[in-house]
Design brief:
Catalyzes the condensation of isopentenyl diphosphate (IPP) with allylic pyrophosphates generating different type of terpenoids. This protein is an alpha/beta fold. The chain has a single domain, classed as Undecaprenyl pyrophosphate synthetase. It contains 8 helices and 6 strands, in the order E-H-H-E-H-E-H-E-H-H-E-E-H-H. The protein has helices spanning 24-30, 35-56, 75-98, 114-126, 143-159, 170-176, 222-234, 243-253; strands at residues 16-20, 60-67, 102-106, 134-141, 187-190, 209-212. The chain has a 6-stranded parallel β-sheet with strand order 3-4-2-1-5-6, with helices on both faces. Strand 3 (102-106), helix 4 and strand 4 form a beta-alpha-beta unit. The model has no long low-confidence stretch (mean pLDDT 97). The chain binds 3-methylbut-3-enyl trihydrogen diphosphate (2 copies) and magnesium ion (MG). Residues 20-22, 64-67, 70, 194, 196, 198 line the site of one 3-methylbut-3-enyl trihydrogen diphosphate.
Amino acid sequence: MRSRKDHIDLQRLPSHIAIIMDGNGRWAKEKGQDRLYGHFHGVESVRNIVEGCAELGVGYLTLYAFSTENWDRPQQEVTGLMELLVETIRKETETLNRNNIKLHVIGDMNMLPEYARQALRESLEITSRNTGLNLIMALSYSSRWELVQAVKHIAEDVKAGKIDPASITQDTLSGYLSTGNFPDPELMIRTSGEYRISNFLLYQLAYAELYFTNVRWPDFRKENLYEAIIDFQKRERRFGKTGDQLQQETVVNQ
Ligand code: IPE
Ligand code: IPE
Ligand code: MG
């Protein structure tokens, strides 16, 4: 069978893909299983999609793994997710390293149990010199939390005389976000048929192309990723301009 991969224009890949990995619970329920069974199988999709992005040559992949709001889930599910996270990090670090993948974490690490922070610190250190795919895990992350943190830091730096309020630009604000070193996502994928952003990268997604699929996260594989990228490549990204303007620009640049 031919892969959809053959239809991807490798010169026009989204430099940064962000994914809201949703539907683990429903996937498990549909199989008469516990929600954690769904999370467990979701890890297989993470592995597959990270590999798919690395093979294509995508620069940045952000995965929304656990939101600030997810702390309000039943204790048993939260603990199960933390244990799964630590187990996965420990198991996969060697593979990440072998594939030249650099791990990053965004979110409120102070909320995580110490054993999880420890596992993350180790993996971050081990992969820190890698130069291939940047894998950004959003853990205990929410965009409004991140924006509040940024505002606090800016206020402190203004107070300390390090920055002049009049000189603050959009780039200044971007730089204070936890994604300060990464380009904005160009493609945002959400699985499992939900059409919302759920407090994910609100500032950074300003001009991202949004792609929604009914496929549940544990069923999401490379072929589904390719389909999303092909869809992305068919879109006209106007950034506020008209379609005619864009066509003229293409002629000029040729
Ligand atoms: C996504 O799947 C994983 C996390 C939020 C941790 P869900 O657990 O939200 O699955 P549904 O939405 O209940 O099916
Ligand atoms: C968003 O999924 C968070 C993650 C995928 C980690 P949720 O399942 O928590 O989002 P809502 O509650 O349906 O908006
Ligand atoms: Mg969900």
